[in-house]
Amino acid sequence: xxLGQVEINFAYVVSAALFIFGLKMLSSPxxxxxxxxxxxxxxxxxxxxxxxxxxxxxHWVVLGILVGSVAxxxxxxxxxxxxxxxxxxxxxxxGGLASMLLAWSEYHQVQQLSTFIALVTVLSxxxxxxxxxxxxxxxxxxxxxISQKPVIFQGQHLINAAAFALxxxxxxxxxxxxxxxxxxxxxxxxxxxxxxxxxxxTIPIGGADMPVVISLLNSYSGLAACAAGxxxxxxxxxxxxxxxxxxxxxxxxxxxxxMNRSLANVLFSGFGKAIAKxxxxxxxxxxxxxxxxxxxxxxxxxxxxxxxxxxxGLAVAQAQHVVRELGDILEANGTEVVYAIHPVAGRMPGxxxxxxxxxxxxxxxxxEMDDINPRMDSVDVCVVIGANDVVNPAAVHEQGSPIYGxxxxxxxRAKTVIVMKRSMNPGFAGIENALFYEENxxxxxxxxxxxxxxxxxxxxxxxx
Amino acid sequence: xxxxxxTFIFILSIFLGFEVISKVPSTLHTPLMSGSNAISGITLIxxxxxxxxxxxxxxxxxxxxxxxxxxxxxxxxYAATDRMLAMFKxxxxxxxx
Lengths: 464, 97
Prior knowledge:
The complex is a heterodimer.
Chain A: H1 5-25, H2 29-51, H3 58-78, H4 84-109, H5 115-142, H6 156-176, H7 182-202, H8 210-231, H9 235-259, H10 263-268, H11 273-277, H12 293-302, E1 305-310, H13 312-317, H14 320-332, E2 336-341, H15 351-358, E3 366-368, H16 369-372, E4 381-385, H17 394-397, E5 416-421, E6 441-445, H18 448-463
Helix pairs in contact in A: 1-2, 1-9, 4-5, 4-8, 5-6, 5-7, 5-8, 6-7, 8-9, 12-18, 14-18
Chain B: H1 2-21, H2 29-40, H3 43-50, H4 57-87
């Protein structure tokens, strides 16, 4: 059976509706899984009807889908929840790469392009290439294959600007005369320069800014698909790509707002490196009060309400399961337990929520920053696990601080704060945390997982 | 005219995307990201349509690679999202995922 273009395009409309419905159902954890399934059905429908068109080279199709599916499924089922950010970065990059390859393939086949098609072709290649190498760098940073520290060298902005101008110029000439051989050279020039820009523009961005970068690359991958959709005049690519593009932009905006920084500041400042230098002078003063597992046990045992505040350190220590175990013990002890999550905690938006969900924490116990802050004064104990900058009161009190104005989880207002941390080292922003010196703060030094296990042991020894 | 028509669709979709996605709670931002990531593998559709029997050489090779990478994006994205969403449960202490 061969379908004509009209039938195929009608099926695409159904697919688009399914994608939109699927995303809509993501508005609640109760319906989200079905939503994702619905979106998957939409994708399957689009794939099937596309293959029912005449003249498809099926042997290539089958081979390609087989190889891709096996690789994709192995990746998806093997990945640890803590490693989800790098997985998403990797997939993102592949999406961008696919859009770039598609545009290239189309151009190679039909080299006489109208101005409009030339424009969208070069756009698709440009965005797709940046998405690809940018995501690869993000993946490398997140998985620790390359340094998470911002890599900054002299004249970096100048080089980036020059590369960008070069790509723009080549693109412009390509749009004016896309015909080979000159057109082809210009095309390849744009492709190569864009690949380079992807690397040089992502490498200066530090680890804790990754939530912004992944969101942005997510948006790019959608826009690349969009541009590819213009190249092949296909509605479904444009609709789906635009949805993803919008999603990525929204997430980027949320992440930037949660750090009180502009997108330009995240992308160009090399935050974390620049700050560390002038942090030496006026630090917070006072006494640090270390606590033993036994001390912490007595504090928690007597508490009526406890709020856990997780950060990237929780993921590093793989401590999500023991935290939940401790939470359960506390609840059995009559304590109200919540998990307060800062929007940029972890390495991608919502990272902590997924880890805690993995550990079987009920999602109605996961509370957002804006919900916990107003009632922070009534919280007996805040337990900060591997979080630092997102609980630093300097963001509220010290106008001179580089993080001043960033919304934080105001743990210092709780009656008691317990900070689990390996050492007194400053966090990503490179600034001392005044929270550690507050009257009501106790420092519980050690590996987060081992510390919590020690607490659980204390509780068990009493109940036994 | 096609260009106008396609741009029209593009603009409307962007607005629709903003509307729908701003309703997603921050708890679900990671699954949103990997789920939308899977959707961005939609390039697969374009790549499949480009694998024509009448095409040869580099065209086919590039389109084939596009199919492979887009498929990784699609299957991996949906599977990873499903794995994550399966873990979001309300108060029932069943078996951990």
